[in-house]
Each structure stands twice: as C-alpha cells, then as structure tokens.
Amino acid sequence: MNFLKKHSFRFAVLHSAVTLFLGCESNFKEVQKSNFSEFVPSGEAEKINLKYTDSGRITAVLVSPKMMEYANVTFPFTDFPKGIDVTLYDKNNKRTIILADFATSYKSTNIIDLKGNVKITSQDGQILETDQLYFDQKNEWFFTEKSFKFTDPKGTSNGQGIDFSKDFKVINSQKIAGEIESDQ
C-alpha cells in the first residue's frame, strides 16, 4: 500500500510537470508571436529621379528603379535594391557619376553604402571600380577597405583600401600596385 501511495504521488507530480511544460510552451509561442513585428518599408517608390539643390543650384541627381524607405525603425535607412545612378555636381558644374547595383543610405550617420559593381567616373576621366564603397555625405568623402581598380589619364593601378574626396583631388591608398606616370 505504501508502494502505491509513493508511485501515485510521483505520477501526479510528473503529470503536473508535463502539463505545466506543455502549457508554457504553448504560451511561449503565443508571446513570441505577439512580440514579432514585421520588417516592412514605411514607403516605396519606383522609377525615381530626385534632384538635390543648394541655393537654387543642382548639386546631385539620383536615378533609381526602386527605393524603399525604412523610417519607422530604430536605425532609419533607405534602400535602393535595384541600383542607383547618381550624378554629383561641384561648384564649377563638373560632374562625378556614381553607379552601383545596390545602395543603402543611413539617416543618422549620413553614410551611404554602395555595393556591387561600384563605378565612379569623374569628368576629368578618372575611374574607380570596386565591389563596395562608402560615401560620407557630410564630409563628401569616399572610402573602402575592399580591392579596387583606379584608372586616370596617367595610368591604371590596383590596390586594397582607398579613401578620396568626391572630386578625386585628394586620394589616399593603402596597398597599391600598377604603373602611373609621375609629373616629377
């Protein structure tokens, strides 16, 4: 009789634990569902052609097949999932053209992340090609740690890691190889 009481008690405890565990698992899944927020854009646009001006002068033209705005997230950003074609104009109206397969613009840092077949061409014939490049809009400065190819009228060089001003007047490279004609 003592044996039956002992095992009945263990069975009751085991039964309660299993019921509690299964009940908690079901509630846990419901809690997960209620805390899940879908990551959707707050705005979308197709076939965009934006012109940026400063004191009535066009400073940039951005063309893209698609733009997706994520303004309602903790770290707001804008995606250009089908690529961009940007033309920057300096104060003398010289153009710099930027092409990329994909771009993300981060609002809080003013950094643009350009990815996939990134190509920058200046009006003076300088061309930079790489897989990924960042643009600091505030300082008008490009930079990457990726491999790159730089071509100008003096020659072509390859390297890894470069940063430069949007007009190519200041260029700093880390590892470089190639033949470039020198003025000296």
Précis, in short:
GO terms for molecular function: lipopolysaccharide transmembrane transporter activity. The protein has about 180 residues and is α+β, with helices and mostly antiparallel strands. Helices cover about 20% and strands about 55% of the residues.
Which descriptors would you attach to this protein?
184 residues; alpha+beta; lipopolysaccharide transport protein A fold; 2 domains; 6-stranded antiparallel β-barrel; 1 helix; LipoPS_assembly_LptC-rel; lipopolysaccharide transmembrane transporter activity; LPS export ABC transporter periplasmic protein LptC
Structure, explained:
GO terms for molecular function: lipopolysaccharide transmembrane transporter activity. It comes from Flavobacterium franklandianum. Pfam families: LptC. This is LPS export ABC transporter periplasmic protein LptC. The protein is of the alpha+beta class and 184 residues long. The chain has 2 domains: 1-36; 43-174, Lipopolysaccharide (LPS) transport protein A like domain (lipopolysaccharide transport protein A fold). 18% of the residues lie in helices and 55% in strands. The protein has a 6-stranded antiparallel β-barrel with strand order 2-3-6-7-5-4. It is globular, with a radius of gyration of 28 Å.
- Helical residue percent band: 10-25%
For the largest beta sheet, what order do the strands appear in spatially? 2-3-6-7-5-4
| CATH architecture call of the largest domain | Sandwich
Q: DSSP strand (E) fraction?
A: over 45%
CATH top level assignment of the largest domain = Mainly Beta
User: Remind me, CATH topology of the largest domain?
Assistant: lipopolysaccharide transport protein A fold
- The shape, in one word, is globular
CATH superfamily of the largest domain: Lipopolysaccharide (LPS) transport protein A like domain
User: What's the gyration radius in Å?
Assistant: 28 Å
Pattern of helices and strands: HEEEEEEEEEEE
- The residue ranges in which pLDDT falls below 50 over 5 or more consecutive positions are none
Largest sheet: 6 strands, antiparallel, barrel
> In total, how many beta strands?
11
Structural class: alpha+beta
Ends: how far apart?
A: 106 Å
In terms of quaternary structure, the protein is single chain
Mean pLDDT: 81
Number of helices: 1
Domain count: 2
Pfam families: LptC
Protein name: LPS export ABC transporter periplasmic protein LptC
GO molecular function, one term: lipopolysaccharide transmembrane transporter activity
